[in-house]
Specification:
Strand 5 and strand 6 form a beta hairpin. The chain has two domains: 75 residues, no CATH class; 70 residues, Peptidase S8 propeptide/proteinase inhibitor I9 (Alpha-Beta Plaits, 2-Layer Sandwich), CATH 3.30.70. It is of the alpha+beta class. The protein is built from four helices and seven strands. Strands 1, 2, 3, 4, 5, 6 and 7 form a seven-stranded antiparallel sheet that branches.
Length: 170
């Protein structure tokens, strides 16, 4: 019995210190301070659990309302952005961005950027030359800040954008 416990502990030990910051944020968040989603939000978004809410660029100069939602099923972390000027809603992954690399660039060439910004490569699609990269942190502005932070390495990619969510009805 003791040997099994030791083996289990040894197998899980390397992973114990590498908790996903989004999971930590989920456990630490309180939904009480979150405004309700807009009436015209996609119905699927109503199944999400609010993690955070805020105004961008700031509460003093609001141009966007932003919600971070967690879902038990499907994609776990979603960012909903409402443009206050026209009410337009956009939906995207809250914890990652999408980078389309230059055709001659190998994904390994992203290593200095990833290391400098403490970002993590989550996935790479060789066929489409697309890298999925985690964002800087778990704040409501993490996606745009990450997109801005990677600009000094823009010679490596054709485009960098949000990892948008499209709905079948559109």
């Amino acid at each position: 019995m003791g040997l099994v416990s030791i083996l289990v502990l040894r197998r899980t030990a390397p992973h114990a210190g590498s908790e996903d910051p989004w999971q930590h944020h989920l456990h630490a968040s309180q939904a009480a301070a979150v405004e309700a989603l807009p009436n015209n939000v996609e119905v699927a978004m109503l199944k999400g659990h609010p993690m955070a809410f805020g105004y961008l660029p700031s509460a003093a100069d609001p141009q966007q309302r932003v919600w971070l939602l967690h879902f038990d099923e499907s994609y776990p972390f979603v960012r909903v952005v409402e443009e206050l000027s026209d009410g337009k809603l956009t939906y995207m992954a809250a914890d990652q961005i999408k980078i389309r690399l230059q055709p001659q660039v190998d994904v390994t060439e992203l290593a200095p950027m990833l290391e400098a910004l403490q970002l993590r490569l989550r996935n790479f699609n060789r066929k489409h030359h697309i890298a999925i990269v985690g964002v800087i942190d778990t704040q409501i502005d993490a996606v745009p800040r990450t997109l801005k932070a990677i600009q000094p390495w823009s010679e490596l990619f054709v485009s960098a954008d949000v990892d948008g969510i499209e709905f079948r009805s559109h």
